[in-house]
Design brief:
about 300 residues; alpha/beta; five-stranded mixed beta sheet; 13 strands; globular
Length: about 300
């Protein structure tokens, strides 16, 4: 059985074509991996066109049509109805993506939220394989999380779970794009590190400068670490996760991020042990792997 997994991002899309032995099998033989730029002028048409290309490629590789596809989307996603409710980066509202994709491809299609589905990928194939309850935190241009509870992503009542980037960590702090002030995302995202340093250098350079002892970069980086630890302490006290998995672009900082973050989290949890903090094992493939898992569960 051949499956298609497609991870839609604001600037590019990643995909894989996978051969599996049966329903709900995690992993499988990867027949092809592909990437494609996201069409900013017509993102819906671009997604459907790339999906059709993947379906044609799958049939070319195997001699038979793909059995199902999984497509993961950014923004607010109603996974039950398969609707892209809102994505500011892609400019769409209430797009019935599952129906449109199923009509275009002629096969069953599952729709998922990008970060929650990346958490599913880590749960099945990555850093969360050995625990049933963990938090996956993606720290990139923005910050979001997936709550994996009893081995499954928890979407919340209306699909808004995991908005950890908009936890207020500094009341009356800097304004956030969401309309609030002092949100985690305004201090600890990659975009925030660049903005708060003020030199225009990318986040990884700010972190490198901090590691080298540059005073302003150190102040910006330490504030980011403090804000991350504050939010993860709250998540730990609410959820008691067995693990915190860190992904996204900032995860590439490795021990420069994880070691001081773990120490700060331990310091904030005076009366209980802190959960381990580990890096993603799937890196930027977590979303597409999760998309293929969603597809496998349709057959």
């Amino acid at each position: 059985m051949t499956l298609i997994g497609l991870d839609v991002g604001g600037t590019s899309m990643k995909a894989e074509i996978v051969k599996v032995a049966g329903r709900a099998e995690a992993g499988g033989e990867v027949l092809a991996t592909l990437s494609w730029p996201t069409d900013q002028a017509d993102p819906v048409g671009g997604v459907l066109g790339f999906a059709a290309h993947l379906a044609a490629r799958a049939e070319e590789l195997t001699g038979s049509p793909a059995a199902a596809a999984g497509i993961v989307l950014p923004g607010i996603v109603d996974e039950t109805s398969g609707t892209a409710v809102h994505s500011a980066n892609l400019g769409w509202r209430d797009v019935p993506m599952r129906r449109l994709a199923a009509e275009r491809l002629g096969i069953p299609v599952a729709i998922g939220h990008d970060v929650r589905t990346a958490g599913l990928g880590e749960a099945e194939l990555g850093a969360g394989r050995e625990v049933s309850d963990f938090v996956f935190v993606a720290i990139g241009t923005g910050i979001a999380a997936a709550l994996i509870l009893n081995d499954s992503p928890y979407p919340g009542t209306s699909g808004w779970s995991g908005e950890i980037g908009h936890i207020v960590v500094r009341p009356d702090g800097e304004p956030c794009a969401c309309g609030n002030r002092g949100c985690l995302e305004t201090y600890a995202s990659a975009a925030a590190l660049t903005r708060r340093h003020g030199s225009g250098v990318p986040a990884e350079k700010v972190i490198a400068l901090a590691a080298a002892g540059e005073p302003h970069a150190s102040a910006v980086w330490n504030e980011a670490l403090d804000c991350l630890a504050d939010s993860l302490a709250s998540a730990t006290l609410f959820l008691d996760p067995g693990l915190i998995v860190v992904g996204g672009g900032l995860a590439k900082a490795g021990a420069t991020l994880l070691t001081p973050l773990a120490a700060r989290l331990t310091d904030r949890l005076k009366f209980r042990p802190a959960p381990p903090i580990v890096p993603t094992e799937l890196d930027d493939q977590a979303g597409v792997k999760g998309a293929t898992i969603l597809a496998s569960r349709l057959r």
